[in-house]
């Protein structure tokens, strides 16, 4: 066995406890083979081929960013301080109309760099030029569930159908890429931006192909009302009617859910990806995270795109989810630290149907090592509290995915950080010039 050992740290276990332990990884298999408490009796395991020092640090499952549009890093700070609909129509969609596949690759590379540097090992991405995003995922060493986002409003039937076909083709062709670190989904943008016949056909074909469905649902009140007005049913009932609810499916946002929708999500096993920063920034509303969890819905965390966040740091998302969840429930004991840590790890992996999210023997070797030796993390009464409320992405020392070291002592090994930043900044500035002259 080609063994990597993460030594000298404290390890966050799946039950939420933290113990001093060494984690041994089979690098070829990309699996954790042993989590050994330092107090354990018995024979010490053989030397590893390589070690990662975790002294003074906390070893956690790699974080999962369960909803983003990763190439939107190029539009970070491009248009702020507007509600969802005008923001998309007046600013974001016109800019995206000028985005080339090269731009998507440059933006995805920047996003991958940012995620590795903040301890994220897996993400779900809805965008276009997904073959380029897949190349980046492969090079960066990350894990992802990828899909081409479909929008049919404002398109003629032929263009709309082609967009649906593209999403299905991407879902079929990229599944299993990057040594199986890439999985896929059919990704209609939302229940209001994709017409009913296209949703119906696309979901049916996705089922035949055995790929999950991912879409934006119940994000704003403006998006729920027309569905209720036109159909006399709420969006989650509509989604159920379309065949889009199931244990492999995961919906972004779920802010305005009511009238039996939470139970429908729970009963069908459909996961919800909570995106608190995006929901606050676009003033979309407060998702009932505590109620969703109490009903048994799998809740994950997502940053959404960098243009509505404005970063891809899942530590921020944990804190925002805890804070906003309390406000939404009008209860300071709602959405506690352990809950948001679970949402960012096991909840994310489960929502996306990807391995990882737990540090235990047999699990995928996806982890992050968080340096606790910092003023803002002193003293350490409770490491889980620190993860939720005080730590930042920049506290991550090492990132490991599928048994490979992606970052060691804050140096990213799979990407040339300076070149990626320079390239993305140049692509973003050219893009804005094109938009201005369009
Ligand atoms: N093929 C589609 C592209 C859809 S990709 C997914 C889209 O979601 C957009 N998006 C980003 N954040 C949000 C959000 O919070 N709600 C809804 N859409 C968003 C993003 O800008 C992108 O246009 C087309 O022809 O336009
Ligand atoms: Zn989104």
Automatic annotation (TrEMBL):
Pfam families, per database record: Amidohydro_1 (PF01979)
Sequence positions that bind Zn(2+): 67, 69, 216, 304
Keyword Flavoprotein: no
CC cofactor note: Binds 1 zinc ion per subunit.
Keyword Iron-sulfur attributed: no
GO MF entries: 5'-methylthioadenosine deaminase activity; metal ion binding; S-adenosylhomocysteine deaminase activity
PANTHER family: AMIDOHYDROLASE-RELATED DOMAIN-CONTAINING PROTEIN (PTHR43794:SF11), AMINOHYDROLASE SSNA-RELATED (PTHR43794)
UniProt function note: Catalyzes the deamination of 5-methylthioadenosine and S-adenosyl-L-homocysteine into 5-methylthioinosine and S-inosyl-L-homocysteine, respectively. Is also able to deaminate adenosine.
Protein name, UniProt field: 5-methylthioadenosine/S-adenosylhomocysteine deaminase
Protein's organism: Halorubrum ezzemoulense
Designated gene of the protein: mtaD
């Amino acid at each position: 066995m080609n063994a990597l050992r993460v030594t000298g740290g404290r390890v966050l276990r799946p039950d939420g406890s933290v113990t001093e332990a060494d984690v041994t990884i089979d690098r070829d298999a990309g699996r954790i083979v042993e989590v050994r408490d330092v107090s354990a009796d018995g024979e010490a395991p053989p030397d590893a081929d390589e070690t990662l020092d975790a002294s003074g640090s906390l070893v956690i499952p790699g974080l999962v960013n369960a909803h983003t549009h990763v190439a939107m890093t190029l539009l970070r700070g491009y248009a702020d301080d507007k509600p969802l609909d005008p923001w998309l129509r007046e600013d974001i969609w016109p800019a995206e109309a000028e985005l080339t596949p090269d731009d998507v690759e440059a933006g995805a590379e920047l996003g991958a760099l940012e995620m590795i540097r903040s301890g994220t090992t897996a993400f779900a991405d809805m965008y276009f030029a997904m073959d380029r995003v897949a190349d980046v995922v492969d090079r960066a060493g990350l894990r992802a569930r990828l899909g081409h986002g479909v929008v049919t409003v404002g398109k003629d039937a032929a263009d709309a159908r082609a967009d649906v076909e593209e999403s299905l083709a991407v879902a079929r062709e990229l599944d299993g890429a990057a040594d199986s670190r890439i999985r896929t989904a059919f990704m209609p943008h939302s229940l209001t931006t994709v017409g009913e016949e296209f949703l119906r056909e696309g979901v049916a074909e996705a089922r035949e192909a055995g790929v999950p469905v991912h879409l934006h649902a119940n994000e704003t009140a403006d998006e729920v009302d027309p569905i209720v007005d036109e159909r006399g049913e709420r969006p989650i009932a509509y989604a159920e009617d379309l065949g889009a609810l199931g244990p492999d499916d995961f919906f972004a946002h779920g802010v305005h859910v009511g009238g039996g929708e939470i139970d429908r999500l729970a009963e069908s096993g459909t996961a919800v990806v909570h995106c608190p920063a995006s929901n606050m920034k676009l003033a979309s509303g407060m998702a009932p995270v505590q109620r969703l969890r109490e009903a048994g819905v799998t809740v994950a965390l997502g940053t959404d795109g960098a243009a509505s966040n404005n970063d891809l740091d899942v530590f921020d998302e944990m804190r925002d989810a805890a804070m906003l969840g309390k406000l939404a429930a009008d209860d300071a004991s709602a959405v506690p630290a352990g809950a948001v840590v679970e949402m960012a790890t096991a909840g994310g992996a489960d929502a996306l149907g990807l391995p990882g999210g737990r540090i235990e023997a047999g699990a995928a070797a996806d982890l992050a090592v968080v340096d606790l030796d910092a003023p803002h993390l002193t003293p350490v009464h409770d490491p889980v509290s620190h993860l939720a409320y005080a730590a930042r992405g920049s506290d991550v020392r090492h990132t490991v995915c599928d048994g490979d070291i992606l970052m060691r002592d804050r140096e990213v090994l799979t990407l040339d950080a300076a070149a990626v930043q320079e390239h993305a900044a140049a692509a973003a500035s050219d893009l804005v010039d094109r938009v201005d002259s369009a």
